[in-house]
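Field log, afternoon session.

UNIT: design team B
ACTIVITY: writing a sequence onto a fixed backbone
BACKBONE:
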């Protein structure tokens, strides 16, 4: 399901969370939460929309935390979370992704950009 994020499909976050909650293994729940965030980062990066590179940076930072948690719970000889963590950091570095500068942050919706007519 997460692989559909970059292919123009809309996948509701709630749906992913609900399906993820069905997993009985805590390691898998944490690891696949990281996968979901990583896929959102890839979809954002590939979208090319305004601000997408800043959003991609934020999305790639989220799985780093999830993969660190998963690593602590990983079965012996399972390095998947470490490999995914490395992939995210390489994507950030290779694409020179950075957080949005504070002075560039504006609310998505504010009263000054829309006036109500009664």
């Amino acid at each position: 399901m997460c692989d559909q994020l970059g292919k123009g499909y809309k996948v509701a976050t709630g749906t992913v969370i609900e399906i993820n909650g069905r997993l009985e293994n805590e390691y898998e729940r944490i690891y696949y939460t990281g996968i979901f965030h990583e896929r959102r980062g890839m979809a954002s990066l590939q979208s090319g929309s305004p601000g997408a590179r800043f959003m991609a940076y934020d999305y790639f930072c989220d799985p780093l935390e999830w993969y660190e948690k998963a690593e602590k719970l990983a079965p012996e000889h399972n390095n998947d979370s470490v490999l995914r963590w490395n992939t995210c950091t390489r994507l950030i570095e290779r694409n020179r992704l950075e957080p949005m500068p504070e002075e560039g942050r504006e609310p998505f919706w504010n009263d000054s950009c829309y006036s109500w007519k009664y």
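LOG NOTE: Residues 1-9, 109-118 have pLDDT under 50 and may be disordered.
NEXT ACTIVITY: expression trials, pending approval
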